[in-house]
Amino acid sequence: MNITRYNPAREFEDFFERFNWPFAKEMGLQEMTQADWMPMVDISESDQEYLIKVEVPEVKKEDIKIQMNNGMLSISGERREEKTDRKNHRVERFYGTFSRSFSLPDDVTEKDIEAEQKDGMLYLHLKKTAKKQPKAVEIKVH
User: Fold this and answer.
1) Residue of 37, 53, 57, 34 whose CA lies nearest to 45
2) Level-2 CATH architecture, domain 33-80+92-129
3) Maximal CA-CA distance, the chain
4) 3-state SS assignment for residue 40
Protein backbone atom coordinates (compact mmCIF):
# COMPACT_ATOMS: atom_id res chain seq x y z
CA MET A 1 0.00 0.00 0.00
CA ASN A 2 1.43 3.36 -0.97
CA ILE A 3 0.73 6.50 0.98
CA THR A 4 0.51 9.45 -1.35
CA ARG A 5 1.74 12.86 -0.34
CA TYR A 6 -0.89 15.61 -0.55
CA ASN A 7 -0.50 17.69 -3.69
CA PRO A 8 -2.73 20.80 -3.74
CA ALA A 9 -2.22 21.17 -7.49
CA ARG A 10 -3.78 17.71 -7.96
CA GLU A 11 -7.20 19.03 -6.93
CA PHE A 12 -6.89 21.74 -9.57
CA GLU A 13 -5.97 19.13 -12.17
CA ASP A 14 -8.85 16.88 -11.12
CA PHE A 15 -11.28 19.77 -11.52
CA PHE A 16 -10.36 20.21 -15.17
CA GLU A 17 -10.20 16.49 -15.86
CA ARG A 18 -13.67 15.84 -14.46
CA PHE A 19 -15.23 18.23 -16.92
CA ASN A 20 -12.99 17.09 -19.77
CA TRP A 21 -12.21 20.67 -20.67
CA PRO A 22 -10.43 20.90 -24.04
CA PHE A 23 -7.61 23.06 -22.76
CA ALA A 24 -6.78 20.66 -19.90
CA LYS A 25 -4.43 18.69 -22.17
CA GLU A 26 -2.86 21.89 -23.46
CA MET A 27 -2.00 22.80 -19.88
CA GLY A 28 -0.18 19.49 -19.49
CA LEU A 29 -2.82 17.85 -17.35
CA GLN A 30 -2.97 14.10 -17.73
CA GLU A 31 -6.13 12.22 -18.50
CA MET A 32 -7.95 10.46 -15.67
CA THR A 33 -6.81 6.88 -15.20
CA GLN A 34 -8.81 4.07 -13.67
CA ALA A 35 -6.79 4.09 -10.45
CA ASP A 36 -7.51 7.75 -9.75
CA TRP A 37 -10.97 7.60 -8.25
CA MET A 38 -11.54 7.51 -4.54
CA PRO A 39 -14.86 6.82 -2.88
CA MET A 40 -16.01 9.56 -0.54
CA VAL A 41 -15.64 8.82 3.19
CA ASP A 42 -17.25 10.14 6.38
CA ILE A 43 -15.62 9.39 9.74
CA SER A 44 -17.47 9.95 12.99
CA GLU A 45 -17.01 8.99 16.63
CA SER A 46 -19.24 8.05 19.53
CA ASP A 47 -18.34 6.95 23.06
CA GLN A 48 -18.36 3.30 21.94
CA GLU A 49 -16.90 3.34 18.42
CA TYR A 50 -15.51 5.10 15.38
CA LEU A 51 -17.65 4.78 12.25
CA ILE A 52 -16.19 5.00 8.75
CA LYS A 53 -18.81 5.29 6.00
CA VAL A 54 -17.50 4.71 2.47
CA GLU A 55 -19.55 5.39 -0.68
CA VAL A 56 -19.21 2.29 -2.86
CA PRO A 57 -22.29 2.13 -5.11
CA GLU A 58 -22.32 -0.83 -7.48
CA VAL A 59 -19.21 -2.34 -5.89
CA LYS A 60 -19.76 -5.97 -4.98
CA LYS A 61 -18.77 -7.35 -1.59
CA GLU A 62 -16.25 -9.70 -3.21
CA ASP A 63 -14.58 -6.73 -4.93
CA ILE A 64 -13.76 -4.97 -1.63
CA LYS A 65 -10.73 -5.79 0.51
CA ILE A 66 -10.22 -4.46 4.04
CA GLN A 67 -6.89 -4.91 5.81
CA MET A 68 -5.31 -3.63 8.98
CA ASN A 69 -1.54 -3.61 9.31
CA ASN A 70 0.65 -1.73 11.80
CA GLY A 71 -2.11 0.68 12.79
CA MET A 72 -3.18 1.41 9.20
CA LEU A 73 -6.63 0.48 7.95
CA SER A 74 -6.66 0.00 4.18
CA ILE A 75 -9.78 -0.28 2.04
CA SER A 76 -9.35 -1.21 -1.60
CA GLY A 77 -11.55 -2.52 -4.35
CA GLU A 78 -12.84 -2.15 -7.84
CA ARG A 79 -15.99 -0.84 -9.49
CA ARG A 80 -16.37 -2.64 -12.79
CA GLU A 81 -17.79 -0.87 -15.82
CA GLU A 82 -21.05 -2.26 -17.11
CA LYS A 83 -20.85 -4.10 -20.40
CA THR A 84 -23.88 -3.26 -22.53
CA ASP A 85 -24.76 -3.02 -26.18
CA ARG A 86 -25.95 0.55 -25.67
CA LYS A 87 -24.17 3.58 -27.05
CA ASN A 88 -22.98 5.86 -24.22
CA HIS A 89 -23.63 9.55 -24.71
CA ARG A 90 -22.18 10.63 -21.38
CA VAL A 91 -20.26 8.78 -18.65
CA GLU A 92 -19.50 10.80 -15.52
CA ARG A 93 -18.97 8.03 -12.99
CA PHE A 94 -15.53 6.59 -12.33
CA TYR A 95 -14.69 2.94 -12.76
CA GLY A 96 -11.69 0.85 -11.90
CA THR A 97 -9.68 0.30 -8.77
CA PHE A 98 -9.61 2.45 -5.65
CA SER A 99 -7.68 2.52 -2.41
CA ARG A 100 -8.04 4.47 0.83
CA SER A 101 -5.88 4.20 3.96
CA PHE A 102 -6.39 5.58 7.44
CA SER A 103 -4.17 5.69 10.49
CA LEU A 104 -6.06 4.30 13.46
CA PRO A 105 -5.99 5.57 17.02
CA ASP A 106 -4.47 3.46 19.79
CA ASP A 107 -7.86 2.51 21.25
CA VAL A 108 -8.82 0.32 18.24
CA THR A 109 -7.58 -3.21 17.64
CA GLU A 110 -7.89 -5.47 14.61
CA LYS A 111 -10.33 -7.85 16.28
CA ASP A 112 -12.67 -4.95 17.13
CA ILE A 113 -13.47 -4.03 13.50
CA GLU A 114 -16.73 -5.03 11.85
CA ALA A 115 -17.82 -4.26 8.28
CA GLU A 116 -21.22 -4.28 6.60
CA GLN A 117 -22.47 -3.12 3.23
CA LYS A 118 -25.93 -1.68 2.64
CA ASP A 119 -27.51 0.57 0.00
CA GLY A 120 -24.22 1.40 -1.72
CA MET A 121 -22.43 2.23 1.52
CA LEU A 122 -19.70 0.33 3.34
CA TYR A 123 -19.91 0.76 7.12
CA LEU A 124 -16.80 0.03 9.18
CA HIS A 125 -17.46 -0.12 12.91
CA LEU A 126 -14.25 0.26 14.90
CA LYS A 127 -15.05 -0.55 18.51
CA LYS A 128 -13.11 1.38 21.11
CA THR A 129 -11.07 -0.47 23.69
CA ALA A 130 -9.47 0.89 26.83
CA LYS A 131 -6.58 3.18 25.96
CA LYS A 132 -3.22 1.96 27.08
CA GLN A 133 -2.20 3.92 30.13
CA PRO A 134 1.42 4.88 30.64
CA LYS A 135 3.06 2.51 33.06
CA ALA A 136 5.17 3.98 35.81
CA VAL A 137 8.53 2.32 36.30
CA GLU A 138 9.74 2.04 39.87
CA ILE A 139 13.34 2.99 40.48
CA LYS A 140 15.17 0.59 42.74
CA VAL A 141 17.94 1.87 44.94
CA HIS A 142 20.86 -0.49 45.58
Assistant:
1) 53
2) Sandwich (2.60)
3) 86
4) coil
* pTM: predicted TM-score of the whole model, two decimal places: 0.66
Return d(Cα 100, Cα 3) in angstroms, integer: 9
Comparing CA positions, the residue from 8, 20, 107, 102 lying closest to residue 53 is 102
| Main-chain dihedrals φ then ψ at residue 104, nearest 5 degrees | -95, 150
Domain boundaries, the chain: 1-32, 33-80+92-129
**pLDDT tens sequence across 4-34:** 566 666 666 666 566 555 554 454 444 444 4
3-class state of residue 106 by DSSP: coil
Cβ neighbour number for residue 141 with a 10 Å cutoff: 3
